[in-house]
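Private note to self, pasted from the team thread so I don't lose it. Backbone tokens:
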């Protein structure tokens, strides 16, 4: 199984609205997939896969999965060298996280392989 980097998002609206926002912010097209049980959205090119969906992870130690209803999971594809694969995954996840963070619209959490919280972001509430 390949390593993933996951960005968890707190978004109060339906997933279809989030898809539209992500497509605009990231300049990508997310395609709807279903396996009969679950539905998810996916962007894929020759080196990266990004999937978006709801998740049912429970809080684990200090990682508060339950505060973030949506999950963006990122993994590298078709790269045989492990270090190169890790770099592609890290770079793309960082790009996505920074683009979302720059909007200052979403609470975000970046997690490595669902085990280690790398970064968290909460927009400043303007009064």
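Design output:
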């Amino acid at each position: 199984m390949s390593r993933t980097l996951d960005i968890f998002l707190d978004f109060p609206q339906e997933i279809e609205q989030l898809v539209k926002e992500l497509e605009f912010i990231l300049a990508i097209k997310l395609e709807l997939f279903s396996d009969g049980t679950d539905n998810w959205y996916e962007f894929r090119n020759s080196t990266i896969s990004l999937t978006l969906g709801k998740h049912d992870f429970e809080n684990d130690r200090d990682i508060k999965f339950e505060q973030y209803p949506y999950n963006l999971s990122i993994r590298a594809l078709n790269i045989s060298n492990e270090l190169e694969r890790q770099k592609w995954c890290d770079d793309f996840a960082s790009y996505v996280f920074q683009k979302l963070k720059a909007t200052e619209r979403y609470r975000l959490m970046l997690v490595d392989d669902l085990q280690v919280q790398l970064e968290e972001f909460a927009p400043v509430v303007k009064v």
